[in-house]
Amino acid sequence: MKIKSLFILAVLGFGMSLSASELTVVSTEKLDVGGTAFHPVLSPDGNTLLFSSEEHKGLKSLNLVTKEVSVIDENAGAGFTPVFSADGKEVVYRTVSYQGKLLYRDVRKYNIETSKVVQLAKPCREVVNTQAIVGDTYAVGHASRQFIDVTIKGKTNEVNPLPDGHLYVWSALSPSNDKLLFFEMNSGLFVSNADGSGAKKLDVRADYPCWAGDDYIVALSTKDDGYVITSAKIVAIDIATGKVIELTGDDVLAEGVTATKDKIAYTTESGEMYIMNIKVAK
Amino acid sequence: MKRIALIILSAFMVSMAVEATKMSELNIVIDPGHGGYEGNDRGMDIWPYCVVTPESMWESKSNLWKALHAKAILDSIGTKITLTRETNEGYYDYDDDDTNNEPSLLARAQVANKLAADAFFSIHSNAGENVNYPLMIYHEESTAGNPRSQESVKLAGVVNDVFNTSKYSNWVNYKGQINTEAPGRVTGDRSLLGYSLGVLRNCYVTSMLSEGGMHEHRPQAHRLMNQDYCWLEAWYFVQSIMDYFETEDRFVTGNVAGVIYDDHNIRGWEYTGKYERHTMLGRDKFMPLNGAYVELLDEAGNVVQKRTTDKDYNGVFVFRNIVPGKYTVRAVKDDYYEKLTQVEVVADKVTYQDMPLCLRRESPLAVTSYHPNVPEGELVSCGDKITLEFNYDVNVDEFEKAFTIEPAVDGYFEYEKSYHIVHFIPTVTFAKSTDYTVTIAKSACSPDTIYANNTMAEDFVFKFTTMPRERLEVIGNYPADGGGVHYIKPVVEFRFDCKLSGGEALDQIKVYDKDNNELAVNKRTTKYNQLTNGYGNLSVVLTNDLTVGETYRAVLSGNLRDTENLVLGKDVEVTFTAKDESIEKEGKVLETFETASLFAYNVDETVGISNTTPKYTKNSTDKLFDTASGKFSYNFSSNREGVVVWDYAGTATDSIMKGDVVGLHVYGDFNNHELYVGVTSGTDTKYEKVCDLTFKGWGYYEVTMNSLEAGYPYKLTDIKLVQVTSPITQSGAFYLDNLMLKSAEVGGVESVSASEADAVKVYPIPADDVIYVEAPAAINSLELINVRGVKVAEITGKSSVNVENLHQGVYLLKVKTDDGTSVHRVAISR
Asked: I need a surface site. Which of B173, B627, B674, B765 has the fewest CB within 10 A?
């Protein structure tokens, strides 16, 4: 009841200009990368698709134009949340190593054109904002701090859109930088203004939420029995209406998803990877 | 918490290795499994919460409590600790789980990955009735036996080792037995479950899922509702972290943990039923005490910590973070004697000290009611038992010494309501027509050994006399010993002088083949207690057909009991042979019973039936030939003088003559009634008895129709059932299949040669007025003989005989010529 009340207030206070649009899937293609693929990340221009193994070991890229697969890194953890530069030419990521039983991560940068990897920082235990290395506009949710860093053209604001929020797991600025999506562990998926105001709860259980243009959020929606994922589908949420569009059936058991304004890539529990071409009609 | 921090700081002063890991360096993520009291959460109906409510046992709640306690401990010693959830409210909309907010399994893993945790624990408890052991699970890649991370395997092993030191739970293995050593297990998810745990599969960090115990094991469920218990499990997690990371920090304090419980009364005796249906061994057998006060006193007598046990039937208390040394635990509760026990607290350890309290029973033990307690002259069933109820629970050993019965009876004791009620149950039964005297000597006592007068004030004596019936008796069985049973859908039935005690009777009969293999019984069609007036029966249908000609044994257990609890006493064995009643019989099939509405009960001739009218139905289940048999069902109104007549409405037109033989395939109902076939010629109806229905299943019975009028053709018109006076049943059903007709053999008529007979022509057959004869030789005489052998007409010197005045029917025509004599079968029909 408390959540619903907040939601109603949030809707009333949502100040953004929203217009109805329709997202449709134009085509779906299974991608052959010579093995399994997990945790996909699309470049902003939609031409490059990063992927990894289920446990995030190694990082590879697929050129969606030439279908060429390149191995970027084979180290542990390399595939966990790699970040593209705005022009899509560089990727920053971290690899995992252990000193004793303590976990360390370095910072590496990969150049798409030259295929060169540069270690930017030695293994350390500190949190590193990898997005800041390759861009000046981003949102970083802190999993253990009660705010999100929203940086637009180098200017950072700490926002905490939920008074009792404590774990911001996923967050992202919309392509036009005026909206913010975020997922808080105890409250779910929200969209707000970029400054965190006017938070609106989206009524869908959603993991890996990301923007597909300015009007839609694409995410992975799962059900589980507390131990095993029993169904998982890719959904798109119209942020103007809150309408949820199922882009796949429950039975695909999708496990990861990424999107741009005209492409969605997703992987499945068995390591298959698909790309959808989508169209958003105003 | 401040106290712990200080203690840990002091520990640093004696830190061991310079490069050893500090707890403050670690980054830990703990995931309290499930959430939200609905959906995939796991709630339990548990006393006193008769339905699953938030106050009841929920896995999400205890998981969260453990996690919050672990966070508090880790926070206090500087470890970076993050929980994937910190509340347990309002997550889940059970009716619309697409929109709930409970963190998904992937989101929980994402937190561990995002924070680059040194270790990730997903905390759970397990489902599983009558078992209770910790289970530590690591992730395996695509196949079982292929761990993703050896460090995760080590972590799971360390947690398991630490949990194994816990003496709080009675660890019960899969056989329901107490495990005293190393109860836990370490395993991979695919090896255990056949699939990946969703919360582990995407983790790149060292990770595991802990099942700390079995929450469907009720005593464990009650413990999981207690904050102290959850705190201690959290403490064990922290100790596991210290062990795994080999930190220089250890707990410099210790804990005292225990359960306060009644030292004699049984757990759940006040709320038996579904809430306490689980195996309870060791200390878990006893009743935990709610609201008991317990305190820890130092050597100077100062109260260091105190607790009051909660209202959730676990009796758990933990004195946390106690400075090592010698202490006294003091426990008190209203109506119980105080208990004081010395304990020693050791750093980094848990000192277990249970506190069983003795209930005050400060008056003598006394019998408050007993059974049999009957008026003088009233007799008691030999199958009865002796029951005594006391004002207190009894000391079992002393009670059993104090109990005597004269004359002596072999028997055993059962206890109820936590030893407040005692039953003495004869191993077999009491003897019939016997005067018994029961004495409880005054030495019987309550378990209150502190109270000086806990015995009975005086001996308690009572008497009773038993009835003359002491055994269940078999009053009939089919097949009879040495008899036969049709081999298809074979049926064996026993009948008794009393109704059987219940469904367990079905397990008291076994059928064996000649090699002593037990035959399967179709329990769906097996019936018992279908007789009237208090008589019992047990009728079993074997699942598979028998082999014709082979011998079988039906064995009825001597343990079979009736509703008066009288026992059969000894096994009853019946040997029988499988036979085939469907083999072809001599004669013509007169009626096949393949059509419906073949018979209708005759209202005028039927007497003594109940409101349920007799029926005839076509039956395709119990048939012997083709597709169906005819089922005749009846229900008499009393146990005598009933008759049911069913009129034949079929198309069989063959004449049945005196001396003909009618054969019937009959499926008997073992009710002993008499079965007749009725035939009619004109207005003359005759009934011939086919058989007594003293059998179960198919049999073939023939009857010679000797009561018919000679020379008159009869036709099938009736089936009649005549009730035999018997109290055991008034209703039943029998089945008939192919009714056969064999013509009579003619005695006293000389036989003729085939060649002579063939040479003589007799026509027409049937004839209505005149029968003509042509023969190669001169005809001397013609004689007509009816089926009884009586000459009804004789003509000499003619080649024809007038039959206008003779009854319809079959006759023999004897033709005497110069060449000899021949006999011909003729018929008269109009």
From this structure: B627
Distance from CA of A13 to the nearest CA of B (A): 21
- The minimal CB distance from B204 to the residues A56, A143, A166 is found for A56
Q: Token pair of A282, please?
A: 């105003």
Q: Could you say which residues from 116 to 145 on chain A have a Cβ atom under 8 Å away from some Cβ of chain B?
A: 125, 143-144
Q: Are B500 and B528 in contact (CB under 8 A)?
A: yes
Do A148 and A215 belong together in one domain? yes
Q: Do A166 and A217 sit in the same domain of this protein?
A: yes
Q: Where are the beta strands (DSSP E) in B15-153?
A: 27-32, 43-44, 57-58, 80-83, 119-126, 135-138
pLDDT per residue as tens digits for the range B685-729: 999 999 999 888 899 999 999 999 887 889 999 999 999 887 777
- Which residues on chain B are in Cβ contact (under 8 Å) with A82? none
Amino acid letter for position B130: N
| Cβ(B697)–Cβ(B585) below 8 Å | no
Token pair for residue A2? 């408390």
Confirm if B749 and B789 have CB atoms less than 8 A apart. yes
Helix (H) or strand (E) holding A2: helix A2-13
SS3 for B162? Answer: helix
Q: Write down the ipTM of this complex.
A: 0.93
Residues 191-220 on B with a CB inside 8 Å of A are: 193, 195-199, 201-206
Total domains in the fold of chain A: 2
Instruction: Indicate the pairing of strand B293-297 with strand A216-224.
Output: unpaired
Sheet holding B339-345, edge to edge: B303-308, B293-297, B325-332, B339-345
Residue B527: how many other CB atoms lie within 10 Å: 14
Q: So what's the pLDDT on residue A13?
A: 36
- What pLDDT, on the 0 to 100 scale, is given for residue B709? 86
* Average pLDDT value for residue range B229-235: 98
Cis peptide before B372, with omega less than 30 degrees from 0?
yes
Instruction: Tell me which of B809 and A45 has the higher pLDDT.
Output: A45
Which pTM value belongs to this model? 0.73
Tokens of B359: 């209930």
Domain around A166: 1-41+135-282
- Give the closest residue to B31 by CA, choosing from B57, B66, B72: B66
Rounded Cα gap, residues B126 and B400, in angstroms: 41
User: What is the torsion angle, in degrees rounded to the nearest 10, for the CA atoms of residue B542, residue B543, residue B546 and residue B552?
Assistant: -40
What structural domains does chain B harbor?
34-245 (3.40.630.40), 254-357 (2.60.40.10), 367-465 (2.60.40.3710), 475-579 (2.60.40.1220), 588-742 (2.60.120.260), 754-828 (2.60.40.3080)
List pLDDT tens digits, range A168-204: 999 999 999 999 999 998 888 999 999 999 999 998 8
Both tokens assigned to B468: 């003359």
Interface test with B, best of A162, A228, A267 (most B CBs within 10 A): A228
Helix axes B59-76, B227-245, angle to 10 degrees: 50
Interface test with B, best of A224, A233, A244 (most B CBs within 10 A): A224
List Cα–Cα distances, A110 to A39, A56, A65, A72, A107, in angstroms.
18, 17, 19, 7, 10
Same domain, A53 and A95: yes
Count the Cβ atoms, other than its own, within 10 Å of residue B1. 11
Residue B278: the pLDDT is 65
